[in-house]
């Protein structure tokens, strides 16, 4: 799976990591629904760090279609709310 972190680039991520990422996504969704800004910020950074750690960066000149687009680390709670589907940022 190709994942884009807005403002940073793309990484190739094995589908086997989706379970771990979905747990963080569920936490992020709950924090957003409750308006927990500090929890949201912490979990968003943890999610992005996990994608960076588990994924393999693609070259800057690679233009692969992204299957998943994640917000930048400085995204606001309201901005991320606009990106959400019913399943959160990560489907599944």
UniProtKB/TrEMBL annotation:
<protein>
    <recommendedName>
        <fullName>PspA-associated domain-containing protein</fullName>
    </recommendedName>
</protein>
<dbReference type="InterPro" id="IPR054437">
    <property type="entry name" value="PspA-assoc_dom"/>
</dbReference>
<feature type="domain" description="PspA-associated">
    <location>
        <begin position="1"/>
        <end position="92"/>
    </location>
</feature>
<dbReference type="Pfam" id="PF22743">
    <property type="entry name" value="PspAA"/>
</dbReference>
